[in-house]
């Protein structure tokens, strides 16, 4: 006699596709991650980069993360995942790794902010670097939230 209980495939939540991506909690973080990461890149690019090694890493992490997150968002919107469990693993690993990289970039940007307090065009560079540091830490927090919410889903 066959069991009446639900099958294993029906107990797992389906991955959203199309506009439902913006209504589902872990996946709704992708758009704010892209927007905040873009602000980090724009604000760092607007400063006179006095520490190219530090701020170069910040720009690399923010630009690369924005592009990969945009590709991930497009793949969810177009339904490339086909409700595969591997996409959850890929998403969690990507956002966890990116959270670590963004944390390193945010700390380096905070260091660049402290160093830009004095020097030529100090008030403007300090304000831009402060805003970039804020958005870098905010983006880090969003990536951490996304990674843990995918993991615990």
UniProtKB/TrEMBL annotation:
Membrane topology, as annotated: Multi-pass membrane protein
Organism: Sterrhoptilus dennistouni
Residue ranges of every copy of the MARVEL domain listed in the record: 21-153
GO molecular function: structural constituent of myelin sheath
Compartment list: Membrane
Main location: membrane
Protein name: MALL protein
Transmembrane segments: 27-51, 57-80, 92-112, 132-152
UniProt entry keywords in alphabetical sequence: Membrane, Transmembrane, Transmembrane helix
BP-aspect Gene Ontology terms: myelination
One Pfam family named in its UniProt record: MARVEL
Gene Ontology annotations for the cellular component aspect, listed alphabetically: membrane
């Amino acid at each position: 006699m066959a069991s009446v209980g639900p099958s294993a495939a029906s107990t797992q939540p389906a991955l959203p596709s199309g506009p439902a991506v913006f209504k589902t909690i872990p996946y709704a973080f992708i758009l704010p991650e892209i927007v905040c990461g873009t602000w980090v890149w724009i604000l760092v690019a607007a400063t006179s980069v006095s520490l190219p090694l530090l701020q170069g890493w910040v720009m690399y992490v923010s630009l690369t993360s924005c592009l990969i997150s945009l590709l991930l968002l497009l793949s969810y919107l177009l339904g490339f995942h086909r409700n595969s469990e591997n996409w959850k693993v890929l998403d969690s690993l990507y956002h966890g790794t990116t959270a670590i990289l963004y944390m390193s970039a945010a700390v380096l940007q905070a260091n660049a902010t402290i160093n830009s307090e004095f020097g030529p065009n100090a008030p403007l560079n300090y304000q831009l670097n402060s805003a970039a540091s804020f958005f870098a830490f905010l983006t880090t927090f969003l990536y951490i939230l996304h990674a843990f919410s995918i993991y615990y889903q």
